[in-house]
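Team,

Forwarding the record for the chain on the shared tracking sheet. I've put the sequence and predicted structure together so nobody has to dig through attachments.
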Amino acid sequence: MATSATEDHLIRQALAEYSIGQVCSWSFHSGTAAKTWRVETDCGTYLLRTRGPRTSADAMIRFDHSLRRHLLQHDIPTAAPVSTRSGNSHVRLDDRVLELYRLLPGRTLSETNNTQLAEVAASLARFHRATETFSLARELPPVAQYRTLGVETESARMEAPSLLRMIYDSVLAPPHSAEWENACDMAWAWLHRLAADYGDEMFDALPHVVTHGDFTLANILFDTAGSVCGIFDFDWSRWAPRVRDIADGMYFVSGVRRSPLVPSDIWSLTATADLTVSRCVIWLKAYAEINPLEEAELQAIPLAFAARWLSVRVEGMAKVPEADRIRFALENLAEPLAWLEAHWHEVKTTVAQ
């Protein structure tokens, strides 16, 4: 993907703030709303990354960059931002915030084998143990998670059931949503269940850590041996129940994709995957070997996933043409939720053995 003239100007302005040698070239690397460019210099290769509007406040940037340093101190593989000539960890140009990182060796995978699946689960467990002591997370302000959908309400809780209900009231209102009757029925059933069973009292009682917030294969690097060598993208990290990340990984890492992962394509990032009992069990047992799971967490994982899945599908609507938005939100929406209804008891029972 070629960079536009506007992007070229932005990149030049940002790179002028750094001492990284002679810039040779740049090219699009990844990203949807917030893009990342690969920058080649005579001193090495870097990634120049834009932060999204919702995560560009000073408090969010300070949290993100402090978290990265904390993780590195606890041997969690990630990258800290390169400092500018003036000592800042980012560049602010009008309403855009950019940050620079050295490119670490590694690759993303579209799918994992069982050994890699267990290692990623263990990496998440170690990430959670490291973040238990990162107190800055408790100071984060509430966030308007659905601002791109026109909802300005802020919440300290991601995927708050009341806000999800508000969003789906709008999404499911147009007459053409009737074409997706099965998806609509499933969405309403889980929205009612979230309101009844995943309220703030239950949410607050679950074990909390600093969650990654977007724990998918698109944000994990593997070395040539297939081992995890990098965890990235903490834009949505929050102090929250660890089941949010566990549910994310159970689906986006253990789920079997129907097509290769394309990290820069929102359709690919949110595509429906096929869950299996055996891989869900591998994921949960590998995590629990390091961080034992409480009974309440095993009860909450389907709820945490449903909230995340319903949210992912509507949040992504803002990144596709208007004519495609209902299809984006509802196509195959019901499948993983129906699978959980049919198979979660078997998964839970097997993990508990």
